[in-house]
Amino acid sequence: MPQSPANPPRLKVEHLTRAFGGTPVVDDVSLDVAAGQVACLLGPSGCGKSTTLRMIAGVERPDRGRIAFDGQPVSDERLFQPPEARSVGLMFQDFALFPHLTVAQNVAFGLRSGRDERDRRVAELLERVNLVGYGTKHPHQLSGGEQQRVALARALAPRPRVMLMDEPFSGLDNRLRDGIRDTTLEILKEEGAAVLLVTHEPDEALRMADEILLMRAGRIVQRGSPYNIYNAPADRAAAAFFSDINVIRGTSRGALTRTPFGEFLTPGHADGAEVEIVIRPQHLKIDFDRNGRGPNPTPAEGTPARGRVVRARFLGRESLVEFVMDSDGSRLTASVPNVFLPKPGTALWLMIRRDRCFVFPARR
Ligand SMILES: Nc1ncnc2c1ncn2[C@@H]1O[C@H](COP(=O)(O)OP(=O)(O)OP(=O)(O)O)[C@@H](O)[C@H]1O
């Protein structure tokens, strides 16, 4: 739904700022999340994600900035509503179920309605999280995944306008996690809350988010759909956050940069400026050596360059092959689906998917 003053986003955060001991930890963060939308705050440990979430929850006071739900301020220069007045659902890494309460009592905990309505809502949620028949059990009788689903049901029970989740899946077994993420996402979408999920795992953000907000040192450095963030990273660090990367350095002259893979267009970079051409391992293509010759250059893949295999590893879904390049001794890594394990020393040719390269100014 388009947003306007008459139709404000479910969650709106403007210029949120918080310092600890003089060090800014959250620095001018603004974001919007619509009802039914999942936004992921993604960034390395310590970048300020949890502090942002805690301010929106109302358990941490901002130094500056405004927070509004459906256009109604819950925190600004004058106002600071406590968490219980905000209609937020909270879910953290340790689910913190009440051990002495049953599953049904845990789910009913935040419900203020009459008994019939409460029982109806608990039954509805237990069915939705696939725990029919578990109502009388206690948390210690449940697996980690089941406990996580109870926590989700408990957080959603009062129909919060905004759902805040801080690394909610990180305590779970790796094999369970993808399934639980998908189920959780389905339920969140059905319930229609605005969801802000904090994670340091790019895979989780790519899987769950409608919008990713990439955070670094207290600031949001890029925002966009998973597709855009992955395929058009704002800088080298943003590219490197999602996968291993290869970096080919060169000097831009007349908007062209010469590399072992031919010339690359580098418009917008001054003459003599050092640039970095960044390419993910899966976008390097490998071809065989034909008596010292490689494949013919193509417009899309440019000039091939020869290298020798240093190491090849099988990682299950893919094989990673590391090369040292003949031309300048630089190291590059290519990823190949399935099994491809050439012996060290094998000469092979590499080509670069030019439409998948990113060009950035070189880091000093
Ligand atoms: N109450 C506090 N007092 C002092 N420093 C704090 C406080 N809370 C957080 N910090 C500091 O602020 C920085 C950001 O912490 P925050 O928990 O927001 O980061 P994060 O991105 O969520 O990291 P993680 O994923 O490790 O939880 C850290 O350096 C942390 O030590």
Describe the structure in your own words.
This protein is 22% helix and 35% strand. It has two domains: 158 residues, P-loop containing nucleotide triphosphate hydrolases (Rossmann fold), CATH 3.40.50; 119 residues, OB fold (Dihydrolipoamide Acetyltransferase, E2P), CATH 2.40.50. Helix 3 packs across helix 4. The longest helix is centred in the middle third of the chain and has 18 residues. The strands form four sheets. Strands 6-7-8-3-9-10 form a six-stranded mixed β-sheet, with helices on both faces. The protein has a five-stranded antiparallel β-sheet with strand order 13-12-11-14-20, with no helix packed on it. The protein is α+β, with helices and mostly antiparallel strands and 364 residues long. The structure holds adenosine-5'-triphosphate. The site of adenosine-5'-triphosphate (ATP) has 11 residues, from helix 1. Adenosine-5'-triphosphate binds next to helix 1. One of its GO terms (molecular function) is ABC-type ferric iron transporter activity. Pfam families: ABC_tran, TOBE_2. One of its GO terms (biological process) is quaternary ammonium group transport. Keywords: ATP-binding, Cell inner membrane, Cell membrane, Ion transport, Iron, Iron transport, Membrane, Nucleotide-binding, Translocase, Transport.
Question: What hetero molecules are bound to the protein chains?
Answer: adenosine-5'-triphosphate
Topology, number of strands = 20
Low-confidence stretches: none
Strand order of the largest sheet: 6-7-8-3-9-10
Provide the gyration radius in Å: 25 Å
Mass-distribution shape: elongated
Write the CATH fold name of the largest domain. Answer: Rossmann fold
Mean pLDDT: 92
- Number of continuous helical runs: 8
Supply the number of structural domains: 2
Going by helix content, strand content and strand pairing, the class is: alpha+beta
CATH class of the largest domain reads Alpha Beta
| Helicity range | 10-25%
**What is the H level of CATH, i.e. the homologous superfamily of the largest domain?**
P-loop containing nucleotide triphosphate hydrolases
CATH architecture label name of the largest domain: 3-Layer(aba) Sandwich
How would you characterize the largest beta sheet? 6 strands, mixed
H/E element string?
EEEHEEEHHHEHEHEEHHEEEEEEEEEE
**Span of the ends, CA to CA:** 44 Å
The portion of residues forming beta strands comes to: 25-35%
GO molecular function, one term: ATP hydrolysis activity
Keywords: ATP-binding, Cell inner membrane, Cell membrane, Ion transport, Iron, Iron transport, Membrane, Nucleotide-binding, Translocase, Transport
GO biological process, one term: quaternary ammonium group transport
Protein name: ABC transporter ATP-binding protein
